[in-house]
Amino acid sequence: MNPLAQHLQESDVSFDGGDLDCGGGLLLLIRRHIDPMNEGQLLEILSTDDSVESDLPSWCRLTGNEMVSYTRQEKQRSYLVCKGPLSARKARESTRPSVASAGNGYKAHIVPVTIPSTLPQPSPAPPVEPLSVFGIGSWPRPRWMLSAVHEHLEGRIPEDEFQATADDAVQLVIQAQERAGVDLVTDGEQRRDSYASFVGGLLDNCQLIPLTDLTAMVDDPEKFEKELRALDVPAAEVRHPVNFGPLGRSKSLALHEFEFAKSIAKTPVKVALPGPYLLTRTMWLDCLTERPYETREALSRDVVRVLREELHYLLAAGCPMVQFDEPVLTEVVFTGATGQRSFMCGALSEKNAPEKELEFATQLINDVVKGLPADRIALHICRGNWTRDESACLAGDFRPLLGLLKDINVGSLFLELCTPRAGELEVLASLPEDKRIGVGVVNQKLDNIETVDEIMAKANHAINLFGRDRVLLVTDCGFATFADNPVSSAKIAEAKLTAMARARDRLRA
Fold first, then answer.
1. Can you tell me whether residue 22 is helix, strand or coil?
2. What are the residues whose beta carbons fall under 8 Å from the beta carbon of 225, sequence distance 6 or more?
3. Side-chain half-sphere exposure of 42, counting CA atoms within 13 A
4. Residue 4: helix, strand or coil by DSSP?
5. pTM for the complete prediction?
6. Are the beta carbons of 337 and 352 closer than 8 angstroms?
7. Residues 224 and 185: beta-carbon distance below 8 Å
8. Does residue 412 contact residue 359 with C-beta atoms inside 8 Å?
9. 179: helix, coil or strand?
10. 136, 414 contact by CB (below 8 A)
11. Does the domain at residues 133-508 carry the CATH identifier 3.20.20.210?
12. What is the largest CA-CA distance in the chain?
């Protein structure tokens, strides 16, 4: 495409990207402006960086947008990009053009990080009794809630409207769990696009962008694009957190979810958060040409800090159980140090040898929970939950993770154990007696409802190994880890929890 003297069409929205290149923050600004626009509207991007002239058309092709035209006057260039194909543009009232300046770089948008001098201490909470029944966290979103999630991600729905819509969805989720008779409910993670990446839209100096956007931000775009094509989940539909400055927690990650769920539930509420190792692996993209942290360890310190802040506030609000999700630990031990990026739970960064990674993960988890009541903190581990295809998920027993499971300072372990991929329960017999075992007794990937007798048999097996007081009954994983990719329906999810509750009642009797 050759430059024009002037654009033949007028933009709907315009912003000035200054001298930023695609790898240094320009794409983050483009995403902020183009997401709220309607398909067919035109975005004008002003730039003085030479590399944008070649990089921007590639990004357009990869993301399904269309480069319409560009102009060049000395150093200043103006690019006109259509959201979606130009053929989708129809006659409509143009939005009032907006102009934003990047100043001397993306640092103009960095929010100062405030670190609290003191954190609230835990408040009393209802105890979680032996043989308690509950799900891991996520629940299938109604179609209207899923639409609201996408509208919210793209900035096309007001915050108060989104939260009100989510409140309605959470009420349905909690009602279903209470009908089933569980001992702890969750809010079904209805406000989240996925169980982990959602924090990228809440943490200071972090932004959620489609995986496809990363192609223009890495040092080897061709290699990265090839890796994306190998993913099980379409890269354009998966949002990934990218941090462009020091991480901060000026907004809660899950406290607002807990407070609303607690206000309407008759049953105690459990909360799930992504674990520190998972977030560090997810956010540390060593392939980026520019990044705010020099090392993964430096990033991990801020990840630990923000998670620790959130944990303090949740326990102070009376949350009886906070669960940290670390499914990527199985990716560490079952794929080894291959040097290849993996989509397993969104952890795209490369890794070291398994023993080094497990040591790193153990330290991060213990740093988050240090000094807090272990009996109210849990760890969940599975082998992948983005597809119903069992053969596509990792397989192997918990033997390689025993050292970590023994050394982490949490009181409960919620483990995927119903699927044959998880190996034998006996592998866990040597775990310390101060740890309770949440035994996965139903497989959320399967449509068939496990019978009460089948669930009781698995539970009795665990009771014989660990003792009645140490056993909890859980699902292998959530019913809808990724909002767009539930592995079950709400009807089946409720039926499975109902069967678990009936088995619990017979066991307790």
1. helix
2. 62, 215
3. 22
4. strand
5. 0.85
6. yes
7. no
8. no
9. helix
10. yes
11. yes
12. 83
Instruction: Give pLDDT, residue 407.
Output: 98
Would you identify the CATH topology of the domain 13-109? Translation Initiation Factor IF3 (3.30.110)
Amino acid, single-letter form, for residue 347: A
Give the closest residue to 304 by CA, choosing from 329, 330, 338, 279. Answer: 279
| CB contact at 8 A, 389 and 362 | no
Task: Please give the Cα distance from 282 to 305 (Å, whole number).
Answer: 16
The domains of the chain are located at 13-109, 133-508
Place of tokens 């929205």: 13
Amino acid code (one letter) for 413: L
Contacts of 85 (CB under 8 A, 6+ apart): 64, 66
Strands 76-82, 42-47: pairing is antiparallel
DSSP string of 34-88, one letter each residue: HTTSPTT-EEEEEE--TTHHHHHHHHHHHHT-EEEEEEEETTEEEEEEESS-GGG
Give the residue ranges of the chain where pLDDT is below 50.
93-108, 341
Dihedral pair phi/psi, residue 52, rounded to 5°: -60, -30
> What number of other Cβ atoms are within 10 A of residue 99's Cβ?
10
* Per-residue pLDDT tens digits for 266-305: 999 999 999 999 999 988 876 665 678 889 999 999 999 9
Per-residue pLDDT reduced to its tens digit, 127-156: 999 999 999 999 999 999 999 999 998 888
pLDDT of the residue at 490: 96
pLDDT tens digits, 58-75 = 888 878 899 999 999 989
Nearest CA to 162 among 70, 89, 64, 257?
Answer: 257
- Encoded amino acid at 119, one letter: L
In the block, residue with structure tokens 């939005």? 95
- Matching CATH topology for 13-109 and 133-508? no
Q: Which residues, 6+ apart, have CB-to-CB distance to 122 below 8 Å?
A: 312, 315, 316, 372, 373, 376
Helices assigned H by DSSP within 386-489 = 402-407, 452-466
